[in-house]
Design brief:
Layout lengths: L1 E3 L8 E3 L6 E3 L7 H9 L11 E7 L5 E7 L2 H14 L10 H10 L8 H24 L6 E9 L5 E10 L5 E11 L4 H35 L4 H15 L18 H8 L4 H11 L17 E3 L1 H4 L3 H13 L1
Parallel strand pairs: 6-9
Antiparallel strand pairs: 1-2, 2-3, 4-5, 6-7, 7-8
Helix pairs in contact: 2-4, 4-10, 7-8
GO molecular function, one term: zinc ion binding
Pfam family, one: Dimer_Tnp_hAT
Organism: Gossypium trilobum
Length: about 325
Amino acid sequence: MAKFECENKDELKAQCNHYKSIFSTKSFSETSHLRRHLISCLKIFNKDITQYTIATKPSLEGGSSIKTYKFDDDECRRVVSTFLVCDKHVFRTVEEPRFRYMISIVSLNFKNKSRQTTIRDVLMYYAKERDHVKEELAKTHGLICPTSNNWNSEHNNDEYICITAHWVDKNWKLQKRIIRFRGLSPPYDDFVETILCNLKIIFDEYVKNSKSMSSSLARSFNVSDNDPIDSSLHQLNVNRANLGGDYDEKSELELNSQIDVLDYWSKSSIRYCELSFLARDLLAIPISTVASESAFSVRKKVITFLRSSLKPKTVQVVVCFDNWM
């Protein structure tokens, strides 16, 4: 509060320094209204200059320039969580004396957290990254192809199934993310039997459609008076004209020449727009339904001893967060 000058010198008033409200301050009046305002006042807090430090950063001229640096506690906690997960450290590392001493030397503002708090931080950042992955998959224009891979524990008989999504993004870069890492509870007979039944239904439907398509094609060739080869050549010429007519005029690539297929279609997507959509979907399909590193191996991926001691839900969080970061 500050004394407010009035025209009448006998009248006393006070003005709030922050909210600029004016209050009566007669000598015989109560001061409870001033106390209530102090509690509810929308104070304008001064910025804490202790949160800012002076740091240097490289400049374009080769020297260094001075900048102000603000300590970000949330970013520090995120970095610690990423360090523990991606470098495969145990959560109790944050409680080790040497780690605490190192953090105290690096930053006096950062307060070390307990192991339980660090686990909650990892779960929180995992949930945020999971939302980012969902948004990334939702924005994908092409096909998303999953692959599966089996993992087992190093010191027990726990089994896990890992589902990885593959797709080609808008910049024609092949992307893959682990979208599911779930423990399998034995016995697996019912689970495998369900998959076999579903695959058999799909296969029978495919065979049925293939037979009907073959019979319809045979009838169309029988009733046609034209030579099938001539008809195919005519259709090829029509398609070539629709594509611009000069597709075959370009020099062909050598058989063993090095070519980045994704880069080629990235540059040719404007010219061959519809073909590029087809190429995007085809190039996203893995050669095998299992992970590429396991295509020629009968061995399963192994979860380390430290991660095997975690709960299955925590294992999924750690493996997925490690893959996303």
